Amino acid sequence: MEKMPNNATDGPERIKAVLASLEISADLIAARSLVLHPEAQELVVAAIGDDGREYLLMPAAAAKWREMSAAALTDGVVIKIGSAFRSVERQAEIIRAKLAEGLSLDAVLCTSAPPGYSEHHSGRAIDVTTDEGAAPLEPEFEKTRAFRWLSKTRAGLVSRSHIRRTIRMVTITNRGTGASG
Prior knowledge:
CATH topology: Muramoyl-pentapeptide Carboxypeptidase, domain 2
Structural class: alpha+beta
Strand order of the largest sheet: 4-5-7-8-6
Number of strands: 8
Oligomer: single chain
Strand content: 15-25%
Number of domains: 1
Number of helices: 6
Largest sheet: 5 strands, mixed
CATH architecture: 2-Layer Sandwich
Helix content: 25-40%
CATH class: Alpha Beta
């Protein structure tokens, strides 16, 4: 089990500083009714990607992911983690990279949550992909067997109320898993 550094004492101030460095205002956060997601403090390896990358989740979420991916495989469907836990700093790096590519902040925030507000910080959210040739996090994913399997079967874990046009994120809770787009 991997313990993450405890940023609880400097969390809110640290997040405010990161948001300020990205010129993301408190008004923007309030206008979007965003929920602060504290960083997970205890993480384990949920899966290892084909490239050897370790995907970290909270222990209960990792167990649910393994259960769900095994159920999919039993049905002949491959689901993989494209992204899992992200620190506040990693989320800021993602946003900075998109801004450096010339995207506007509004465009970036249409697909990426501001640092501190990403469910990935919780250690319970993953971006789901497959080996069916669809680019990760793209609308083509809805044409895959993996998407149909998640939509139909949900392995008893994915809540229908969270299924949207393109499943890209699964948030794993104690009750099960919710997928959102």
